[in-house]
Amino acid sequence: MSYVSRRANLLLKCSLLALCYQAGTAHATPFTLPAGRIALDVSYIYDSGDHFWDGNGSHAAFSLSGKFLSNSAFVGLRFGVFDGLEVGLRTAYKSAVYTANPIHLYSTPTGFAPTGSLTSTIFNFSGQESGLSDIYVGTSYRPINRRVSLAFETELKVPTGYRAPSGTLCLNVPPDAVRELVRSSIRSPGQPKVTPDLFCTGATLGDAQVDWLLAVQLGAFISKTRTFIRADLGMNFRFQGPGQQLVSAVKVGEDILGRVVVYVGGRFAYTLNTGDPVGTTIDSALPEAPASAYPGDPYEPTRNQSPEDLDKLLVYNVATRDRSYLMFDAGVVFRLASALELRFNYSRALWGKNFPELNSLSLGFAVATQ
Fold first, then answer.
1. What is the three-class DSSP state of 12?
2. How many angstroms from the chain centroid is the CA of residue 112?
3. In angstroms, rounded to a whole number, what is the distance separating the alpha carbons of residues 214 and 237?
4. pLDDT band at residue 1, thresholds of 50, 70 and 90?
């Protein structure tokens, strides 16, 4: 998910170390590195969630006790070309896991299945993906660095070739077609149209498309109270299918003796138009229902099955890569030396559309040349 990489970049740019000429004013963002200086940032982010908001903003638990987990290791480099202009490069290695209870969507033709044949009707929604996610290349230009500073940022995101998101089935077909495939499998379990190999895991490393971010950044540092304020506003132009995103962020923090910074803030992204479909999601109308509620339960082979049984349990929705969210952030930065810092951050999703209710923890360090 690209929102994780965007957050990593915002956290990186909250660094104290050597990012401005005077200690204690670095958080008077926006800022760029001084000419000739290099900064390295390494961070680890852990995300987890067992609820989500669908495309309409309705909140629900993942079906079948589903849970999403991801572990991401980010590395970023920034270089000050000259005072007021910097370039940056960053990427991440990510492992994403989605787990849920398997179900028997329909029974075997004989009711009581012979040994070993039950596996042909088991649908497992769990899965794992790992590898290099997206690569980000960007630049920041700061034309004004006074009481209120101003900077412009542009960044290009390029995927590395991982599997693209899809619907519950790997087929890119509309909801009515998927519903009929499922109904046909219930009517004729001996010749099912939906088989386990057609299901795609819910875990992906990103949206597998190109983004181009353009943003303006405003910041101020109140020296009397050692308080910093930062606000970002921009457009994330998303190519290859998704809708376009309006993005913004705000952060307020306090510098304590030039050694510790505590801050709180929020991030917001809103998709302005509906993007292209990538398939159909099959969700439960009763998310808390156990696997035994589905009509193919092998322990109840005499159950009178019909397509209507599943119509009461399943909901079919168009899947897109459109994502909207509101995130809360809080963190602390420890300046261990003039060019070294340690950073902790907690984030939580407060609202979204087509977005998981995430709890996130991150730990990072940054070092810069003098």
1. helix
2. 43
3. 8
4. very low
Segments in the chain forming alpha helices (H): 2-12, 175-187, 307-311
Let me know how long the chain is.
370
Q: What is the DSSP letter of 232?
A: E
For residues 262 and 15, give the distance between their C-alpha atoms in angstroms, rounded to a whole number: 12
Q: pTM for the complete prediction? A: 0.86
The 51-53 sheet, strands edge to edge = 59-61, 51-53, 355-356
Tell me the two tokens of residue 112.
Answer: 């009581």
- Are residues 7 and 73 in contact, defined by beta-carbon separation less than 8 angstroms? no
Average pLDDT over residues 53-74: 92
Residue for token digits 């001996």? 190
119: left (phi over 0), alpha (psi -120 to 50) or beta: alpha
| Tens of pLDDT, residues 133-156 | 999 999 999 998 888 889 999 999
| pLDDT (0 to 100) of residue 22 | 35
Question: Taking CA 348 as the corner, what is the angle to CA 347 and CA 354, rounded to the nearest 5 degrees?
Answer: 125
DSSP state of 117: G
